[in-house]
Amino acid sequence: MANENEKFMVVALCGSMNFIQEMLKLQEILSEDGIITLLPCFSADGQRHKVELSKKEQYGLMHFQRIDMADEILVVDVDKYFGESTRKEIEYAKSKGKPVRYVSDFDSDNFYN
Fold it and tell me: From CA 35, how far away is CA 3, in angstroms rounded?
């Protein structure tokens, strides 16, 4: 049982919405390790849907706020791929002094132990 005074690490997951299933799996793994994960906005069915530009901009701003709340970010870069939005999130996190890790740098599911 966790100590009620324990402060859990908070990690914002960043990456292409093409990798939402990988993000959900990472959320499960990291939660089991006692790490709070913050994910980008996505539809409940886990599928990509066309989103109007104003909503896409809002979701982007919301994710920057998630990065602000996080201790660090973990980039879900399957095959070392990430797009322009993720690149902006990485730059934003670095400008705020947040550590940035990349899933492609790890050999296993054990990211923080």
Answer: 14
pLDDT number for residue 8: 96
What pLDDT score does 46 carry? 58
Phi then psi dihedrals of residue 82, to 5 deg: -155, 150
Give the model's pLDDT for residue 49.
59
Nearest to 73 by CA among 32, 110, 39, 33: 39
Specify whether the CB–CB gap between 67 and 12 falls below 8 A: yes
> Distance (Å, rounded) from C-alpha 56 to C-alpha 52?
6
The pTM of the full predicted model, rounded to 2 decimals, is: 0.84
Q: Give the integer Cα–Cα distance in Å for 45 and 87.
A: 25
Q: What is the mean pLDDT of residues 75-101?
A: 95
Domain assignments of the chain as residue spans, ordered by start:
10-105
Domain 10-105 CATH (choose: 3.40.91, 3.40.1440, 3.40.50, 2.50.20)? 3.40.50
Q: How far is Cα 18 from Cα 92, in angstroms, rounded to an integer?
A: 21
